[in-house]
Specification:
single chain; mainly alpha; 10 helices; about 75% helix; about 0% strand; flat
Length: about 180
């Protein structure tokens, strides 16, 4: 039995996923590191595959290599924390957003919204930089049509709604005093 103080500093999504991973593979330092390592590997592979999809072959290799060679990424990839999942979900939200703009398919808006929601659910307010990036990109293109489109705002509201599960659960379990 674990006896610990209340821990509401971070949204518990990553820790719940890690608990499920522990349930499947046992509680150990190795499984904790493998859990976050899988997110790191998926992040590097995602960068590589997406850039190859855009036919930037040499940039795909260089970006993946640069990320793998960076000390801060390797340091964060060794310890179970919400930073790597936040980066993973934020990056895939940006990819889906870009694909939604390129192709116009609504499934990409759904994926962008879902990944943004998971990014917010991974580390809370730090994910606010993703929609800021969306807005800056659209303002730089002067794409007023997309900025005023239903799909764009529905994606943002959907992601915020997914994040609102955490404060609702805190309120439901009478833990709202952390605010």
């Amino acid at each position: 039995k674990f006896i610990h103080a209340r821990f509401h500093d971070h949204v518990p999504f990553v820790f719940v996923l890690e608990a499920l991973f522990f349930k499947a593979f046992g509680v150990s330092y190795l499984s904790a590191r493998v859990f976050i390592g899988l997110f790191s590997l998926a992040l590097v592979l995602g960068i590589f595959i997406y850039l190859q999809h855009l036919q930037f072959y040499s940039q795909a290799f260089l970006a993946s290599f640069w990320l793998l060679a960076s000390f801060p990424f390797l340091k964060q990839s060794r310890f179970p924390n919400p930073d790597i999942p936040l980066t993973f979900f934020s990056l895939f939200s940006l990819y889906a957003f870009y694909e939604a703009l390129r192709s116009g398919h609504r499934r990409y808006w759904f994926v962008a919204s879902l990944c943004l929601g998971f990014a917010m659910f991974s580390k809370g307010p730090m994910a606010v930089f993703v929609p800021i990036t969306w807005w800056v990109y659209l303002f730089s293109l002067r794409d007023w049509k997309t900025l005023s489109s239903f799909r764009f705002w529905f994606a943002l509201i959907g992601a915020a709604s997914l994040f609102c599960v955490w404060p609702a659960l805190l309120f439901y379990t009478h833990n709202e005093d952390i605010w």
